[in-house]
Amino acid sequence: MPSPFDIEEIYPDEAPTPRLPRRQAGTSPQSVAVTLLADYTLRTRAPLPSAAIVELLAETGVTSAGARTAISRLARRGVLEGSRQGRNSFYRLSRAAAADLSAGGSWIVASTVDPQAWDGCWTVVAFSLPQDRGTQRRALRGQLRWLGFAPLYDGLWISPYELGEPARSRLAQLAPGAVTVFRGRQDALDVTGQRAPVDAWDIAAISAQYEEFLRRWTPLASRLESVDGPAAVRARTEVMDTYRRFPTLDPRLPLELLPPGWLRRPARDLFTAVYDGLAEPAQRHVRAVVARFADPVPPGIQAHTTADMLAGVREDACGAGLE
């Protein structure tokens, strides 16, 4: 599943092989740089002066040395493309990174919409890998997390939704001959202490994450008109950085399996209010910072909204065009 963060950020013992850089403990300069470029140049892949990127990262607390190191590493990994105009260096998202980020953004927004009615069936993935194949086991578990599965038991993972053919092929490639997939209804046993399938998810912990998100961002949502400049960019980056974990924590679990008053929709509405509400002042500030280092300012610095993300942000006529 395309995403600008690594599954290890949420589940440290499970790691797929992401195309984009994983975040370390705390705030990673590389992830902040990717988020900034995605939030304001994804549609056009506009090149920004490296000095402007360094300045924007400095406003989030990243040192100049840390920012330059992050840019260099992103370029080596193929996430950024570099160019020169005179004595100045410019960087933009690579086409592959932009495509991944566009798909990832659409996934983030779509995955937090309440699902359609559930048919009561479960998809079960069973696998058996020996302990000496730990890397393969972690890759498989990480891929299952991206697909919305959770472990009911160590080698038995479940999801309320069907597994599409591309996902089936991916699992088969990760563990050939060691995976079985089937779908059906739970056959309840008349015994005390039977583990329900939904117990594969820590519902209380997910609920606490939603509650913390609402506590953190509700006060800001009531005063968005007073947020401008660096504060608008920082808040918009941080709210995205936090919210984008929810599709993995709560993979559209059917509401009938969840406690009354589940906070998925309030969290999504709050994210939309903050992210979209700060788009204009944040865009204005990013353009002002770029103007200090480039004359004329590169065209195509434009914030996108959650509606754009849901549709899949694509390059417009100013860009090279994403396939």
From TrEMBL:
Stated name of the protein: Phenylacetic acid degradation operon negative regulatory protein
Sequence ranges assigned to domain Transcriptional repressor PaaX-like central Cas2-like in this UniProt record: 116-188
Signal peptide: none
Lineage, highest ranks first: Bacteria, Bacillati, Actinomycetota, Actinomycetes, Micromonosporales
Transmembrane segments: none
Top-level taxon in the UniProt lineage: Bacteria
Regions of compositional bias (Acidic residues) in chain numbering: 1-12
Domain Transcriptional repressor PaaX-like C-terminal: from-to ranges: 201-287
Pfam families hit by this protein: PaaX, PaaX_C, PaaX_M
Residue intervals of the Transcriptional repressor PaaX-like N-terminal domain: 29-95
Region (Disordered): 1-28
